[in-house]
Amino acid sequence: MRWIAGGVAGRQDGFPVAAVDTLSAGDVFHGAYALAIAEGRGVAAAMRFAAAAAAVKVTRFGGRLGAPTRDEVSALLAGDRIAAS
């Protein structure tokens, strides 16, 4: 994903996970991005958080029911492997 903030271009690659269902991945991404911005994170940090949230989401089936917890997103950001569930 690419963005421009403050005249500076940035890029956030997706996280390598075994995707099983992409339903609601975009919703999870946008919600996580909005949360991160509301918490005061910069654009780059918010994009990373949102990408991680969406990555966790696609490892499981279901729309809303497949949405990750903050702990699951934090685990992926910390480098833990995410298994499909």
Question: Helicity, in percent?
Answer: 40-55%
Give unreliable regions as ranges. Answer: none
Rg, Å, rounded: 12 Å
Mean pLDDT: 92
Strand content: 5-15%
Cα end-to-end separation: 25 Å
Keywords:
44% helix, mainly alpha, two-stranded antiparallel ribbon, 3 helices
Question: What does this 3D model show about the protein?
Answer:
The chain has helices at residues 25-38, 43-57, 70-77; strands at 2-5, 8-11. With 85 residues, the chain is mainly α. It has one domain. A hairpin with a 2-residue loop joins strand 1 and strand 2. The model has no long low-confidence stretch (mean pLDDT 92).
Short description:
The chain is mainly α. It is 44% helix and 9% strand.
How is the secondary structure organized here?
Layout: E1 2-5, E2 8-11, H1 25-38, H2 43-57, H3 70-77
Antiparallel strand pairs: 1-2
Helix pairs in contact: 1-2, 2-3
